[in-house]
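Subject: for your reference before the review

Hello V.,

The reviewers asked for a structural picture of the protein, and I figured it would be easier to keep everything in one thread rather than splitting it across files. Below is the amino acid sequence we used in the manuscript, unchanged from the supplementary table.
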Amino acid sequence: MSPTVYREGPFLFFFYSHESREPPHVHVERDDAIAKLWLHDGSIADAGGLSARDLQRVTAIVMVQRDPFLEAWHEHFDPA
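And here is what came back from the structure prediction:
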């Protein structure tokens, strides 16, 4: 299962459910490209084929949505 956590314009933000042992991060998909960004600082773990312009856009989105993404991460991977 890959829960979608956010959608903005052409970008879909989601988690891969089997990656619970990694630090909090989010994947972002646009068309056939999938990038991975760390939530602690918004840095790019894997550009995944996104253009430099798209990477700038998704990095900005991740920084704005960081707290809701972290909350969703913990709800999904660390349910109480």
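For the response letter, the relevant points are probably these. The longest helix spans residues 52-77. The beta strands are 4-8, 11-14, 25-30, 33-38, 44-46.

Happy to draft the paragraph if you're swamped.

O.
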